[in-house]
Design brief:
The protein has helices at about 55-60, 80-90, 140-145; strands at about 1-5, 35, 45-50, 70-75, 100-105, 125-135, 150-160, 165, 175. Strands 1, 2, 3, 4, 5, 6, 7, 8 and 9 form a 9-stranded mixed beta sheet that branches. It has one domain (about 1-175): 2-Layer Sandwich (Alpha-Beta Plaits). The chain contains 3 helices and 9 strands. The chain is globular and about 45 Å long.
Amino acid sequence: MLILFNKPYGVVCQFSQHEKHETLADYIAIPNVYAAGRLDTDSEGLLILTDDGELQHRVSHPKYKETKTYWVQVEGAPTLADLMPLLSGVDLGDFFSAPAEVRIMQEPLMLWPRNPPIRERKAIPTTWLEIKISEGKNRQVRRMTAKVGFPTLRLIRYAIGQYTLDDLPLGTLRKI
């Protein structure tokens, strides 16, 4: 079984109770399924769950190079030149990221309001980026945008491989 879930901001990627946040159990009442990869509590978007351990490993393990597409709202107004380091990979201290695909995009049309809203500063614009990576290490996209001088304000995973958020409202799931 394969489940696509549009994870809201603030939800922890675990089924056991959490003292401060909602968990997957608050949204998914299907026994014996597990997340194939994770999304940080402060990230939103596509999460794949399955009851198949081999599939879970294949989706989440970096050696299989499953492309993950993120919509990222950053602070500031980067140019393509500003983003060039991401295209060749950046040194994040504990590892060097593989080259990413990056493009500046319009705010997504299907975007839902975030609760709570991001913090915006009136004097500093924000920009939406589409970033595609195949690694997905801990907080990697946030660390990459910060490294090039444009901190992430909002991060939404739009796709994992062929699976997307299309027609999947926030907080809902679809069985494949």
